Amino acid sequence: MGFGLPLAIVTAWVLARYRFPGRPILNALVHLPLVLPPVVTGWLLLIIFGIRGPIGSLLHDWFGVRLVFTTAGASLACAVMTFPVMVRAVRLSLETADPGLEQAARSLGAGRLDRLFNVTLPLASPGILVGGIVAYATCLGEFGAVITFAANIPGETQTLPLAIYAALQVPGSEAKAAELSMVSLLLAVIGLLLSEWIGKRLNVALGR
Amino acid sequence: MSLSLLLRHRFPSVQMDMAFEVPTPGVTVLFGPSGAGKSTIIAAAAGLLHPKQCRIVVDDQVLGDTEAGIWLPPERRRMGLVFQDARLFPHMSVATNLRFGLRRAAAGPVRFDDVVDLLGIGALLTRRPHTLSGGERQRVAIGRALLAQPHLLLMDEPLASLDSARKAEIMPYLTRLKTTLKLPILYVTHALDEVAQLADSIVLIEAGRVLGYGALSEIAARSDLPLARRDDAAALLLCRVVEHDAPRELSRLEGGGATLWVPLLDVPIGTERRVRIPAREVILAGLPPESISLHNIMPGEVRRITADAGRRSVLVEIGLADGALISRVTPDAIVRLALERGRPVLALIKSTSIEVLGG
User: Fold this and answer.
1) What ipTM describes this predicted complex?
2) What is the pTM of this model?
3) Closest chain B residue by Cα to residue A112
4) In terms of domains, do B166 and B298 share one?
């Protein structure tokens, strides 16, 4: 999440504001995890970030970092899976932001980065936060990509649905599964309500 | 000192080719129908548009010249820009909005407290933009532009989105701003009342060309320019109140090399006022009439006669000692008085037809 959001903002910014030759390809790449079966995404991550994969081997040899079957790996899988959701939310709010305000900021002497941080991003903040919260809630429920890439290790890479699935496999632990499902439901509802509430508060602050 | 601008640019539908030079400081109004090219000039001056050829010089300082390769981006140009919609930053307070340009500009002569006083926005500083009225918002936007220490203030129809009550509320601030700050202002509008109250110079623009430019008092009276053809055509004189005659309930004004008597004004002697004399209200005479209710008989000289065939009338431009009047008469009147260029003529104007504009 921590790494995903800034990257999502940059990607959304690029997709919303610039027209360049590789734009459709970048756009497709960003949205790929949305349409690809999660297991396939997990498998692709395994290929790329595995100890023998092109990036995974570099990480392992240079920094001694291993992503596969670790908590960090589970986070990476989640980040990749929720990336399209975040990019879409941020991009939507960037595109609806009034370009007239940026013109005003320019005429008042604000350069490109100055405008981005002091005008554009604050104005897009409701979309960014809502996108982040929804993405976080989705993360907790990630199944296919995580089980493929990071496996199902209790206390390390086990997400809620993985735990529920594991519980269902063991005869007699339906109660535990139900319990976990309730937790999952609660988290989802809280996440949605929170995003709604924060979005509303921010929009009031922005006078919309 | 002067402001000169040249702009050539080809749009898909129209070729723009405009140039003018007006004195500074003062308000120069760009006047013309929508799509004529007024906003193009503002956008080019602000640097938001990069025309094929453009040169802007204010008081011998070249602010942009495409030929010489001087074309700064808007953020480095120091042009104060006021839009039709105020475009205040909604996530900042009024004070933070005002300081936005100030914090990014080099030190300059415009001070925060002065601007707040001048525009009467002291009570608004902690408010959020969305809680302000349209007129208040526009005043804050003007203040914000001024505090960026601009070389030139560009105002693109700043009052067009306000109703007439809000307009009347903000107008006195604009007049004050104009007299207090020695800053050249380019002001776009198509409302003639704003022109009459604010303009020192005027540039008439139509279909990407400049039809005429110069001092407002000269251009307004030019019978060959489109202003004279309007229903509400009028001459403008810059006058000073010189005498109050309380028993007769009259005030005497002097300006444009003429003396005018108007119904008693409630302002001190010495006050400067703009006076509007509608073309339809100016009667022409060869000899002074006797025993008449009229107070104002001004000697002048016929400068130009232009037929307005569509309206079956003729526009006569009358030169005064230091100004001009315009009169709309019938073709028959021209024949009867044998009016022609260079002939002396008397302009008769009822005191009650003279419109003294607010300060």
Assistant:
1) 0.79
2) 0.80
3) B75
4) no
